[in-house]
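re the bet — no i am not wrong, look at it urself. input seq straight from the record:
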Amino acid sequence: MKTINTDVLVIGSGAAGISTALKAAYDGHSVIVVDKDKYLGGTSAISGGWAWVPGNKQGVAQGDTREEAETYIKHLAGASYDAAAVGSFLDTVPEAMSFFEDDAGIEFTYPEKAPDYRMDASGAKVSGRAVTVPAADARMLGRNRLRVQPYLLSYTVFGYMPEIGPDIAMFLKANQNLKAFRYAARKLTKTWIETILHKRAYDRTNGNALMTRLIAAADEAGIRMWTSTTADEILRDQSGVVTGARISGEHSGEIRAKLGVVIAAGGFSGNADLRKKYFPHDPAGTNHTTPTIGHEGDSLRLAQPFGGHIDDSPHQPASWGPVTVFHGLRGQKRWFPHLRAFGLPGLIAVDRDGVRFANESLSYHDYGVEMIKNDKDREGTFGWIIADQKAMHRYGIGYAKPWPFPQTYFRRSGFLHKAPTVTALAKEIGVPADRLQATLDEFNAGAARGEDPKFHRGSNWFHHFKGDVEHKPNPNLAPIDKGPYYAVKIEMGDLGTYAGLAVNTRSEVLDDDNQPVPGLYAVGTAAVSVFGGGYPGYGANIGPAMVLGYRTGRDIARHAAERAALTATNSSPRTAEASSGKAKNV
């Protein structure tokens, strides 16, 4: 069997894995990254690309304090708060951000406003914690240009992925004014021409932009990145120290990793057997769907032989997100995660009884929590987004685009339902017509005044950020009263697991006795979340992935040196004599 030598082996090529690899490589170590997928970037590449990193330079300049960040995280984590884990994360943010910007050349955007998701909580901030990256020109990838995970197609506008911020705002106005229409038309035309001529457009946005920049930096640092290559088994020596892994696929053999192995292979939300065990709402493994890539439990599979186990202490085992599941016209299964859509004016969500059960302007995670609560002990976790002609014409509903796009495709795919009256729509989607009409009547009475007495939707900065800031009197509210009426089904999904491999503050995997497995690490959603089940803001998965990945890459050589020194001490003649019971009395 072929043997390949390196200093560090990283399993997984998302934000956590590449961040780990980058820091280790910049410190002079050889690194190999393997990914079983044919593309690099994992779920990070189809994400929004934000990173929640309190303590960055913008936040510090605005007066954000360590104490406020801790207070906010503690509020969200509740009894699941892990002070040591949170402390390690916050300690590392400033130097990690400096490394990515100053050494690795990753350009970040510090938005004027990016509100924390729970603005009602102590310590929340309107800005200074969430960062993103500007659009990237994929030509910086060189030979790797076509190797980055493509966008989630249902999230694009005919192939173009609008960038979160002013870009997507212009697309939302494309059917309302000529300037925005021309802007969108230029973006789409450029995308189509480049796709025809070069197989994929050069402009990369959101998570694809983040991974484009990270992968370009990794290639420049000399990191070997192998796709279609599966890590089959972690290897260790007779003393119990992890020494590498056996791999198969496009590259096969044994990788010997002198300093250690880092598991960054994602969580387990794509594994029905593990969902049965850890997701209370999915006891049969059939009540959940995930748009994530590669989150099939490989991280646990690799660590389990050494006592690696799932830490399910977070009060929520995953970062939830309502998802619509539908099929393309060729029958392929597709997903649309609703991360923003029904916080817009003129859209609400109801349960199977036709009743609103939560504030639609909550974060997708917090709304998911409410969906699970509302459907506890009922068969299936689902609901319906409801809109009228005004909202459909102006905003659309997620994947179903607004006027002038024809609705035929969205209806034929099973995504969109339409009926001339509320009663007819209720019949089509199977909810009580009288309850749905009563819900709309109650909602409309408040929405006309810009108020939501039942759930206080549109009452803070984060709600407004999800709405239409130009809509008055409330960016999140408008009556739903003009037929025809529309509905889209939402089910329970996720953006990655919060329960994950048990690790210590050094990201070392812990065994059944909660002792570190020497030389084995886990980062990103492979490891238990530092946020204890809460979702603090934009990039709550990617922020810790990059920061703790950086820290692991920084410290892995020091940990290996500590092990070597301990081994040398334990094998010295005096130690050997003492351990054999022959030490002389002093």
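see?? The longest strand covers residues 485-497. told u. also Residues 408 and 416 are 9 Å apart (CA to CA). so pay up
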